Amino acid sequence: xxxxxxxxxxxxxxxxxxxxxxxxxxxxxxxxxxxxxxxxxxxxxxxxxxxxxxxxxxxxxxxxxxxxxxxxxxxxxxxxxxxxxxxxxxxxxxxxxxxxxxxxxxxxxxxxxxxxxxxxxxxxxxxxxxxxxxxxxxxxxxxxxxxxxxxxxxxxxxxxxxxxxxxxxxxxxxxxxxxxxxxxxxxxxxxxxxxxxxxxxxxxxxxxxxxxxxxxxxxxxxxxxxxxxxxxxxxxxxxxxxxxxxxxxxxxxxxxxxxxxxxxxxxxxxxxxxxxxxxxxxxxxxxxxxxxxxxxxxxxxxxxxxxxxxxxxxxxxxxxxxxxxxxxxxxxxxxxxxxxxxxxxxxxxxxxxxxxxxxxxxxxxxxxxxxxxxxxxxxxxxxxxxxxxxxxxxxxxxxxxxxxxxxxxxxxxxxxxxxxxxxxxxxxxxxxxxxxxxxxxxxxxxxxxxxxxxxxxxxxxxxxxxxxxxxxxxxxxxxxxxxxxxxxxxxxx
Length: 493
Ligand SMILES: Cc1ncc(COP(=O)(O)O)c(C=O)c1O
Hints:
The chain is α/β, with parallel strands linked by helices. It is built from 15 helices and 17 strands. The chain folds into two domains: 3-62 and 383-490, Aspartate Aminotransferase, domain 1 (Alpha-Beta Complex); 87-381, Aspartate Aminotransferase, domain 2 (3-Layer(aba) Sandwich), CATH 3.40.640.10.
């Protein structure tokens, strides 16, 4: 074993890892990366098929991001954001707000004309997530990672509720299998038994609504993915009905919902579960109807991962709080942001002695190196050629993944933009899942690594989320590795 691997085994504790298993094998030690390729300590190359746990956007060692970080490094790496401002963090805040507003306007422009009232003027929209001009994101609160961005969103939503509606018992609603991070507030909003059950006594209780997991639709409404599959009934969004029921139940019980928390477009750690068109819009309308805020956790989906810059844009929904992290710096440095409306911001204004201040902050808030990397990354993201390239890659990904339907262990292939989840099952006819202790997802990813492609599964779901620097050939190599690895592991299963 090489010296670095030895040090790792001796001293490091890895996240979300059964360390007894980890200590049995020599780990892959990454020493460098360029574009979508990572290189290990032995000079072996791998494709970074999950963008280094969903963070990297434009590829590793991108000359423009590197140059931006170096230029900032020559000036200063970090100064406190508590009581001081800085150039890159101020400019970045403006750019993020501009980007969010442009994204909202883009989706507004695509929207069909609103129905007109008797006087011929568009009818006022009283519910729904669509009134972007009145619910505009206006302020940026920086933190360090996805968990802290969600912790900030949660605290702001809670205090906003208490300040505008008086001290009252409230609830938060999030989705089944939700994952919003690992701090205690974020875990309280989560509903993944495996990760969260152990912390039960430490958590506040949040309410859960079913997620629209169409592949395993309990109402038998999912569309058949094969011509010879049985005929399913027409979807009538019973899952959205459940959201409405939950809001009504809490309202009736005197614990109204302060905020609905969603991962728009695609629930990541749940196993890449995409929402059918219309789900988010309807769920947002219900939340609005009950006077609740909408918190969009775009930690995974922001910056074009699912197609548009923000996933909310797909459904013309304007959240009150928008959390982003992973891709914010292009995946180069840990930095996060929670965007809020002016209305929420205003609820925290007052005399110093009123103690309306938002008492929350981290030492590295607004880090100048991170903000510089983020500015360079946003510039790359907005280049028209980059957007065309992403669209082309999305199409290529759909095509490459379609070959996987030939494998009987492939139950479902779910793709939104450049995010894909391939759900493995014992038999596609019955959709019977593999047991956890069979470690099928993990074994498939190990077999992919032997073929030079790195990713991490979510249970029995194989995740592909390539950086935007990926070439069509590299994409083909990734899909081929999934095919061969699934075939190798499941043939004997
Ligand atoms: C949707 C979502 N929210 C929050 C988080 C937590 O982010 P972090 O790991 O940066 O704390 C993640 C991480 O995967 C995520 O996917």
